[in-house]
Amino acid sequence: MNTWGIVVAAGSGSRFGGDKHAAILGGVPLWRWAERLFAEVGLDGVVLVGDVPAGIPGGARRQDSVAAGLAAIPNSADIILVHDAARPLASKGMVCRLLEALAAIGEVAGAVPAVPIRDTIKRVSGNEIKETIDRAHLVAVQTPQAFKGEALRTAHAQITSDVTDDSAMVEAIGGKVLVVDGEPRNIKVTFAADLAMAESLLTEESRR
After folding, report:
1. Model confidence pTM above 0.90
2. DSSP-assigned beta bridge partners for residue 124
3. 64 beta partners
4. pLDDT(21) > 90
């Protein structure tokens, strides 16, 4: 299978306080971790989206940046993985689980990593609680996410409303998306404190 990856590093980083994709973790910028992960897996090619070396310009929304990456990938790509540069600690094993899920019997359009939700979830209106939601069937989804190339291209061509991840777009066109085990260490760097947490995880692992 011809497999390509898209690394999204085009966010404004407003909550982080700067260009978080350029923030240094373990001596290298965040975006480089995502690029290295795809290189370790042995993808046929990787497209970097954002203001990084060899990167192409991103869009106003995350989905626009992914679309820019899609446009730079050959139509021959059978499988496409989309990864946020803000998640530097994803593992090679997770990518392998995603690719294995896509090879499952049946019409599977995509696969995403997810972890159980540990906190109590409530629906609110303003500062008033309206409902406590049963979390038994809820998960928190991470990246990288893997998709059949045709399904991802079709989703981006048809869905124009704002979404938070590519899985939502593929689901919206009726694509079957499977869940694989995510990893608690695969945190998303949104605030400066998240970067400090990632550094702490690396330090702890190096001591083992």
Report:
1. yes
2. 129
3. none
4. no
